[in-house]
TrEMBL record:
Residues 132-204, 256-308 form the PAS domain. The keyword Phosphoprotein applies. CDD domains: EAL, GGDEF, PAS, REC_DC-like. This is EAL domain-containing protein. Residues 555-808 form the EAL domain. The keyword Hydrolase does not apply. It comes from Azospirillum griseum. Residues 413-546 form the GGDEF domain. Residues 5-120 form the Response regulatory domain. Keywords: Phosphoprotein. One of its GO terms (biological process) is cellular response to nitric oxide. PROSITE patterns: EAL, GGDEF, PAC, PAS, RESPONSE_REGULATORY. The modification 4-aspartylphosphate is found at residue 55.
Length: 828
């Protein structure tokens, strides 16, 4: 060491100068001595001596001990007290300033030199320790750590650095027992921390533990603690010493990273990590699943989704500009899978900047839009196409019709509209089930498509209704030919469920602009024409004519009028006697509906039944007829007249197995009529209608009523199935009776029907007997019963009652009729 600089603080000038000389002679570098504490402080600040020799009694308000204490607040300069006294109190005060030695005056040069040397040595050591401590402190600061220490024997924390910052509690908590400290640990982690201490005390070392500490404000901080046991050689005292670090930020960053990694691995979205030139650094499994590429096929290559094939140059430029401006871009990219198939994606590109703000990476995240696109297309298709037949639906058909009409208007052309309605489709659906019905509709759709030109539209409007839009019609007659072709195509048998079906259709045709310039009018016209084709006997077509609309309007008017008449009680029942041909005795009556119309007078059943049959009114009307007829039959009995069979006509629409039998039972119950006196008449054509009708017949028969087939011979009854039906009576249609005896064929038919009825154990009844010859013929062929103008016309209930009374008196029916005028006013 170079000459040590020594400051002497001594109020006795002679002593001070002498000491300065002695120091110099010993090889030190003493500055001029000072006499007061203030001077000493100023000199230390300006000269930074290596050592101070401090007299305790000096000039000024501060003595040497106080001055030394002030110096130590600022400097680590070693101080040696010079004192002539050694009383205990002064020495005690001096000890508090941790002096580096005492020189009791007078002292020898040897003592002076030795004391100074020892002080300088110690000061150098202290300085080294301080520096080392500071280094350690700075290192801990830099590592954001704090030290801690626990006395193993007493399990008491001796020291916790930065306690307030790390734990949120002051030293008071950490200078106490271990258990007190444990209270600051998250309760779920206390065990872990306690066990770690036990392990350490067992000699296994603390290692590293991480636990949660709960601050007084409730916030949770992750702390990492490590430590080792040190045993002081001198005292064998064991101390556990280590460092603590707040790792909350690291833990949450790790958690975020873990989550990010999980998202990266598990998400179904595709993720690409790209460098600043869009070269792929990594991709996730989602990317591979969507695109079909292997991870190592894409890493190191330009991102395939950002190739010029996927983005137009303009889009590419927009994307680049947006990324520069906003550091983010999103939009749709039309990519390709590895197998070359299209891959529409919704992509989001985010730029990642490094610490200097430069873009270092891009993250491309995308979702596959294929399923959404397919669903959109499917929805689009469903919105415009019929799911059963895949034909355009009503919406699309209307659109196409509008376009065709607009084009025709521009070119002064014509558009044809064909309404195709399948005949009796409902029956097929009802009897064979909906799946056969669906198959048939599909077959019809196919046949229709084949029957028209490619540029024409075939649409399904719903149910069994189809529409054909024919563009650029040159000659309207061509529409008739097309309708013919459609009817012929549809009538070709198709095999469904192993059975052959030939379906017929009725087609209505309207023409733009002749039949309407608005599509609604054109459609209405085709619809009206289609109904006209149906009315004309089905399986045919009809062009729209103006009169048809008038007809339709008339039909609506009739329906309204009938409803009104029904509500106003204008409907009546007339009864036509049925007689035993052998005796002429009245054995029953047939109830026939009449309408006492306020304007048209008495109207017949043909003005009522067909109109009612077009709507649900037939149900209400049919119920009313049944109730009225049963009530009348009962009323005659109650009036003392003989029991009569009451025949009531029931239309096809009433033949519902779950309804009609219930209605009949309820009417029989309420009127008290013997079921055996009620006969339900159904036409032969109703019989052919469906199994539904057969079920209804059986249910009616079970009630005890009798059943008759009306108009027999006009339909095409399957004779085989007839025998299994519970039919009691067959009515020979008037058309076969009226030409007897002039028409041999009719005679033969009537004869055959009678014979067949007998074979099937049924009674034959002939209707429309007007002449004696007819009666005689039928009687001779064994026909048991009959009705007709020869005996009596349909008449009121009172007239029937009068006839019955005549009959009771023994008057012949025909005489009674001709005498009593008991005939019906001829219906209009
Ligand atoms: N569903 C229902 N159908 C009914 C009801 N009431 C009648 N009808 C059916 O309407 C058709 C026409 O009936 P209507 O105008 O009453 O004619 C009946 C007789 O007036 C007529 N008739 C009777 N005898 C003769 C005759 O000698 N010559 C002649 N030219 N006409 C005659 O025939 C009709 C009775 O026929 P039918 O029923 O076939 O025995 C008719 O089909 C009625 O069935 C009803 O309430 N519901």
């Amino acid at each position: 060491m170079s000459q040590a600089r020594v400051l002497v603080v001594e109020d006795e000038r002679i002593v001070a100068l002498h000491l300065q000389q002695r120091l110099r002679s010993l090889g030190y570098d003493p500055s001029s001595p000072v006499a007061s504490g203030e001077q000493a402080l100023a000199r230390v600040r300006s000269e930074l001596p290596d050592i101070v020799l401090m007299d305790i009694h000096i000039e000024g308000p501060m003595d040497g001990i106080e001055t030394a204490s002030e110096i130590q607040k600022e400097f680590h300069t070693p101080i040696i007290y010079l004192t002539a006294y050694s009383e205990a109190a002064t020495l005690e005060r001096a000890r508090g300033t941790k002096p580096y030695g005492y020189l009791v005056k007078p002292f020898s040069e040897r003592e002076l030199h030795a004391t100074i040397q020892m002080a300088l040595e110690r000061s150098a050591t202290d300085s080294a320790i301080r520096e080392s401590e500071e280094r350690l402190h700075l290192a801990l600061e830099a590592a954001e750590m704090a030290s801690w220490e626990l006395d193993v024997t007493s399990r008491t924390l001796l020291h916790v650095g930065k306690a307030q910052r790390l734990f949120g509690y002051g030293h008071e908590v950490f200078s106490g027992p271990w258990e007190r400290f444990l209270e600051t640990v998250h309760e779920e982690d206390r065990d872990l921390v306690d066990r770690a201490l036990e392990r350490t005390l067992d000699g296994h070392g603390l290692g590293v533990i991480e636990f949660r500490s709960v601050h007084p404000d409730g916030s949770v901080h992750w702390l990492k603690v490590q430590g080792r046991i040190f045993t002081a050689e001198s005292s064998a005292r064991k101390r556990l010493i280590g460092v603590i670090q707040d790792v909350t930020a690291r833990r949450s960053a790790e958690a975020q990273l873990r989550q990010a990694a999980m998202v990266f691995e598990a998400t179904q979205e595709g993720i690409l990590i790209l460098d600043d030139r869009f070269v792929t650094l990594d991709c996730n499994p989602g990317y591979c699943a969507i695109t079909g590429y292997d991870r190592n096929e894409v890493i190191g290559r330009p991102a395939p989704l950002l190739s010029p094939l996927c983005l137009s140059p303009a889009d590419w430029q927009t994307m680049q500009n947006t990324l520069v401006a906003d550091r983010q871009w999103h939009g749709e990219i039309q990519g390709r899978r590895r197998d070359g198939k299209e891959l529409p994606v919704l992509a989001n590109i985010a730029a990642v900047a490094d610490r200097s703000g430069q873009v270092s990476h891009y993250i491309l995240l995308f979702s596959d839009l294929t399923a959404i696109r397919l669903a959109q297309e499917r929805f689009q298709h469903l919105a415009h196409f019929d799911p059963l037949t895949d034909l355009p639906n009503r919406l699309l058909a209307m659109d196409r019709l509008e376009h065709a009409m607009q084009a025709a208007e521009r070119n002064q052309g014509k558009v044809g509209l064909l309404f195709v309605d399948l005949d009796h489709f409902k029956q097929i659906n009802d009897t064979l089930g909906h799946s056969v019905g669906d198959d048939l509709l599909r077959a019809v759709a196919k046949a229709l498509r084949l029957a028209v030109r490619a540029e024409d539209t075939v649409a399904r409007l719903g149910g069994d209704e189809f529409m054909v839009i024919v563009d650029r019609v040159e000659h309207p007659e061509a529409l008739g030919e097309l309708a013919d072709r459609i009817i012929a195509t549809l009538s070709r048998p198709v095999t469904l469920l192993g059975m052959e079906f030939a379906i017929t259709a009725s087609v209505g045709i309207s023409l733009f602009p002749e039949d309407g310039t608005r599509k609604e009018d054109l459609i209405r016209a085709a619809d009206t024409a289609m109904y006209a084709a149906k009315d004309a006997g089905r399986s045919g077509f009809a062009f729209y004519r103006k009169e048809m609309t008038e007809q339709a309007a008339l039909s609506m008017e009739r329906d309204r009028d009938l409803r009104r008449g029904f509500e106003k009680d204008e409907l009546r029942l007339h009864y036509q006697p049925q007689v035993e041909l052998a005796t002429g005795a009245i054995i029953g009556v047939e109830a026939l509906i009449r309408w006492q119309h306020p304007i048209h007078g008495l109207c017949g059943a043909n003005d009522v039944v067909p109109v009612a049959e077009k709507s649900r009114l037939i149900m209400e009307l049919g119920d009313w007829v049944l109730r009225e007829a049963c009530w009348q039959a009962r009323a005659w009995q109650e009036a003392g007249l003989p029991p009569l069979r009451m025949a009531v006509n029931v239309s096809a629409r009433q033949m519902q197995p779950d309804r009609l039998p219930n209605v009949v039972r309820q009417i029989l119950d309420s009127t008290g009529l013997d079921p055996a006196l009620l006969e339900i008449e159904i036409t032969e054509s109703t019989l052919q209608d469906s199994e539904r009708c057969v079920a209804t017949l059986h249910a009616l028969k079970a009630l005890g009523v009798s059943l008759a087939i009306d108009d027999f011979g006009t339909g095409y009854s399957c004779l085989g199935s007839l025998k299994s039906l519970p039919i009691d009576r067959i009515k020979i249609d008037r058309s076969f009776v009226q030409d007897i005896p002039h028409d041999r064929n009719d005679e033969a038919i009537a004869e055959a029907i009678i014979a067949m009825a007998h074979k099937l154990n049924m009674v034959a009844i002939a209707e429309g007997i007007e002449t004696e010859e007819q009666r005689a013929f039928l009687r001779a062929r064994g026909c048991e019963e009959g009705q007709g103008y020869l005996y009596a016309r349909p008449m009121t209930a009172d007239a029937v009652a009068a006839l019955l009374r005549d009959q009771q008196r023994g008057t012949d029916l025909r005489d009674a009729v001709s005498a009593g005028g008991a005939t019906e006013d001829t219906p209009q």
